[in-house]
Every structure is written in C-alpha cells, then in structure tokens.
Automatic annotation (TrEMBL):
Organism from which the protein derives: Nothobranchius korthausae
Limits of the ZU5 domain: 182-327
Subcellular location: Cell membrane
Designated name of the protein: Netrin receptor UNC5
Gene Ontology terms: biological process: anterior/posterior axon guidance
Length: 587
C-alpha cells in the first residue's frame, strides 16, 4: 500500500531548469582556455626577454668579430677611441648574411700549440636563424667552413679571438691602449705582411704561409707605455728594450713570425759581458722567462738573433715580450744611453729660464717618447742627443752647469751638481729621467745665454754640452733623425712586404732544405748569414731554409737588397739559384 504526502519541507526532489547545465560547463571551458592563454603569454614574454638578453651579448661579440676584417687596400677613418684606432665604419650597406653557428679560437699565451677543432658556441644553439652580418669583399679569399655551412662568394667570417661571447676578456685588453704613434694594425691572411711602428725600431714580420689558407686576422703591434706595463728587473737585472705586445694572442700559426725589438745593450767588447733573457707576460700579469741567450735547448719556444742595436725574435706564440740583462762576471756590462737637452721653444718673457736634460735608453723608441713629451710641454731639442756608456758600477750620474756669465745670469741650484741615482738608471723601469737647471737673468734686456753643461757617471764616461742661444727668439725644433733615413709604412700586406720574391724563395728552399753530404745546404747558408748560433732550432722546422730567409727579411727590412744573399749563395756554389735571382730579382 503506497502512501502519498504533499511535497513540503524538502521532501520533494528539485529539477534544474532547462539549459542550466550547459551554462555551467561552458563557464568551466572558458576559464580553462583563459588560463592556457595567460600561461602562453607569460611564456612568450619570458622567452622574448631571454632572447633579448642573449642577442645583446651576441651583438657585442659579433661586432668585435666582424670589425677586424677589411680588404687589403681598405683605410678606416680615424676614431676618437684610443683603444680602437682602426674601428671600421658601418658595414650594413655592403654586408652579406650568414646563418649558422659562430666559431672562436682559443685564447691565452699558454694555450697548447696544437690545433684545436672549432666547436659551436652553446649560446647560439637555441637561435638557429640568427643573422650575423659579415663584411663583403671580393679581394679576400673565402674561409674554410664545415661542410654543412656555406657562404656566398666574397663573404668573410671574422675569426678573431674574443673568448666566450663577451664573457671572458683578454687580460691585455685592460692594460694596453693603442695610442697614436705607439701602435699599428692590419688585416693579414695567408700571404703575410709586415707591421712597423715608424721611428721606433719595432716591427713584426708575418711570413707567407704563417696564417692558414682562407683565414684572416686583424694583427696588431703595440709599444706599452712605461707607466702602464712595467717589466720588472730582479736584482742587478736591467731592462734593455721597450715592452711590446703583438697579437691577437692565442692565434694558430703555421710557422714562426719575427718580432724586432731595439735594445740599448753595448755589444762591441770581444768577450761577452751580458747575460740576456727574453721575458713574456702571462694573462695574469706575471712575467716569465722564455729563454736565455746562449742557453737554448730543443724545448726553447723561440730563437733570438742579437744585433748591435736590435734583436729579432722568431716565435710561434704571440703576446707581450721584453728583453732584460745583467752583467756576466767578472767584467761589468755597459748599456747605451742618450743625453737630450731641451729648452722652452717660445720666447722667454720672464726673468726665469730653465734647461732640461733627459737620460734615456739609446733606442729610437725612447727618444721618440721624450720628443713627444717635450712637444706637449712646449719644449724643443737644442741639438743631437749625445751618447753615453753607463757602466754597471753602482756609481751615480752627475750633472753640473759651468761658465755662466754671472754678470747677467744666476743659477738657482744650491749645490754644485745634481745626481740621478745609479739604480734609477740601471733598472731601466723608471723613465724618462731628467734634471732641470733653473736660471735667472739680471733683467729682461738680457737675451743671450752661453754656458756649459757636463754630464758624467762618477768614475766613468761623460759628455759636455756647449750652449749658446738667444732666449728671446722662437727656437726652431731640431730633428734628431737623419735626413736620409728611410721611413717605412706602418703596415705592408702581401708580396709588397717582402724583398725576396716568392719564386726565388721557393727555388732557394728546394735547393737547400735537403741535407747535403758536402754540407752545402741550409746549415752553410745559416753560417754565411750569421744565423748559426743555435742551428737545432732551424733543424726542427719543416723548411729550415724558409725560416732563415724570414729572419734575413727581418734583419734587412730597411736595406734588403739581394746582393748580400746572392753573395752567400755564390760562395756556396748555388749557380742555378743565382740564375733565377738574376732573372727575377733586382741583383
């Protein structure tokens, strides 16, 4: 029996109105879609921000990579930034487009000399469509690239060593500044070239074949200013050359380059008075010995050819180098100095007048440094610098002024003389050193000054300056450079950098590289040219004759006529090579 009641007090089941369930499900779907869209937006924004950060890093490095390479005849405009004097103009108008990974070379002077395979930069893997603009040139050969990478004709990828895309910096980039007159650079390839800093005696010869075929580097040569990079001298050691940097460091070389450094070593004694050491600076700033002249072994990385006023260093690792030395007992060694006398160029309008005498190394670079300094101070060189041999005797350098007309002039010097301490001069790390003689005239009507200045090492050699000048006239600058001295361009690229044509070079190498039972091979050529101090260095090279000819080029860059080389070959009986030299050369 069924019982029925009225639907009251919640006893009856409620039913939803038609269409209510559809609205609920629709709302849930819309909310889910909005959540997905918001998540996508957040992801896109984060991705773009990350890409923008990576792109900023890559742009800096790619610009550093591509800024270095231009055609051989390209001359960039002068820039205000002293760190990048050869910075190129905007290359967008003539740029090609390269899609794919970048490659970098290992950095550091202590890198392994063995070739290291190039690897893709991990920062560029997520960006396969990144466009990198590279300079378009039809005068430079193409690069060696992996099989899966292609470049259109004339496009060049810069392989300048820059570390990990702007993260790592070369130590020397912080310490070296490319100042006008103290640096030079050029883009060199397989044909080689020569970098020369005019009026300094510093140069870098890059022989043909040194740079791998298809590769191009912006090579630089810098003289480090003494207040920025100091080569320390330990104990009785003395600095004998400027500190020079060449690079880029870490680049792979197929054969040695030749770095030429001027020095102030006195070498005309019959017995050796010097122990000479070549030093290099690491990326951490420490100095290490590379070799000691006369103590070379098969493991020595360099060869040093010592001449009267300069040395030529054959090396396969670019970096920062300098020459130091110390006396070899029992005789004390001597170093060559220059004494340079300067006075104000402008007419003297006051009662006071001063003369400055500099004591500097007898090298072209040291004199150029002082001339530039005095030019900025308004000074002028009164006469040619005088040479002075400074002996390792612990005696100071004494300077005094004499024969002043006391009726018209008075010296403000209280003592009879001034002295420069021995160690300040001998160390070679404190320069330029100078003394000032301050004078006072009796009245403005006095215009003529005549006196004598004596400079000598106590118990050693000395020099005398005889001065006669009109201080109320504008003094004309005196040029210490000989009028007939050759002025080499700062950079020479390709065959124009070498005196010996490539055809003659190949003939000589083919004739002398193979050992001869009669000894008429590259060893006899080394003896004839005076390069036989350590023959084992040349014996380890694939072409000993080629390295000897590279050294000959460096030693005769200013006067490299072929007569001296032809004479050596004639004495060896190499008539077949002489015929080629007479036909193709300038003998």
């Amino acid at each position: 029996m069924m019982e029925s009641k009225n639907c009251t007090e919640g006893l009856c089941a409620r039913t939803l109105a038609p269409g209510m369930g559809v609205a609920v499900y629709t709302g849930l779907v819309v909310a889910l879609l909005l959540s997905v869209v918001m998540a996508l937006c957040v992801g896109v924004l984060a991705y773009r921000r990350r890409c923008r950060h990576l792109h900023g890093d890559i742009t800096d490095s790619s610009s550093a990579l591509t800024a270095a390479f231009h055609p051989g005849n390209y001359k960039p405009p002068r820039q205000d930034n002293p760190l990048h004097p050869s910075a190129p103009p905007d290359l967008t108008a003539t740029a090609g487009t390269f899609r794919g990974p970048l490659f970098s070379l290992p950095q550091g002077v202590n890198d392994s000399p063995h070739k290291i395979p190039m690897t893709n930069s991990p920062l560029l893997d997520p960006l396969p469509s990144l466009k990198i603009k590279v300079y378009n040139s039809s005068t430079l050969s193409s690069l060696e690239l992996p099989a899966d990478v292609s470049l259109s004709d004339g496009e060049i990828l810069s392989l300048k060593s820059v570390g990990t895309v702007g993260r790592e910096r070369d130590y020397h980039s912080h310490t070296m500044s490319r100042e006008p007159g103290l640096s030079t650079s050029a883009t060199l390839g397989n044909l080689g070239g020569r970098l020369t800093i005019p009026n300094t005696g510093v140069s870098l010869l890059v022989p043909p074949g040194t740079i791998p075929q298809g590769k191009f580097y912006e090579m630089y040569l810098i003289i480090n200013k003494w207040e920025k990079t100091t080569l320390p001298s330990e104990g009785s050691q003395t600095v004998l050359s400027p500190v020079v940097s060449c690079g880029p460091s870490g680049m792979l070389l197929n054969r040695p380059v030749v770095l030429t450094l001027p020095h102030c070593t006195q070498l005309d004694t019959p017995t050796p008075d010097w122990t000479l050491t070549l030093k290099t600076q690491t990326h951490q700033g420490a100095w290490e010995e590379v070799l000691t002249v006369g103590e070379e072994t098969l493991s020595s990385p360099c060869y040093l050819q010592l001449e009267e006023e300069c040395c030529h260093v054959l090396m396969e690792q670019l970096g920062t180098y300098g020459l130091v030395g110390q006396s070899c007992p029992p005789r004390p060694a001597c170093k060559r100095l220059q004494l340079a006398l300067f006075a104000p160029r402008a007419p003297c309008l006051s009662l006071d007048f001063s003369l400055r005498i500099y004591c500097i190394h007898d090298t072209p670079h040291a004199l150029k440094e002082v001339l530039d300094l005095e030019r900025s101070l308004g000074g002028v060189l009164l006469e040619d610098p005088k040479p002075l041999l400074f002996k390792d005797s612990y005696h100071n350098l004494r300077l005094s002024i004499h024969d002043i007309p006391h009726t018209y002039w008075r010296s403000k010097l209280l003592a009879k003389y001034q002295e420069i301490p021995f160690y300040h001069i001998w160390s070679g790390s404190q320069r330029p050193l100078h003394c000032t003689f301050s004078l006072e005239r009796a009245s403005l009507a006095v215009s003529q000054l005549a006196c004598k200045i004596c400079v000598r090492q106590v118990e050693g050699e000395g020099q005398i300056f005889q001065l006669h000048t009109d201080i109320q006239e504008t003094l004309l600058p005196h040029s210490p450079l000989p009028s007939g001295s050759p002025c080499l361009p700062s950079s020479q690229v390709g065959p124009y950098a070498f005196r010996l044509p490539d055809s003659i070079r190949q003939k000589i190498c083919a004739s002398l590289d193979a050992p001869s039972a009669r000894g008429c091979d590259w060893r006899l050529l080394a003896r004839s040219l005076g390069f036989d101090r350590y023959l084992n260095y040349f014996a380890t090279k694939p072409s000993p004759t080629g390295v000897l000819l590279d050294l000959w080029e460096a030693c005769h860059q200013g006067d490299a006529d072929l007569v001296s080389l032809a004479t050596a070959l004639e004495e060896m009986g190499k008539s077949e090579v002489l015929v080629v030299m007479t036909t193709d050369g300038d003998c």
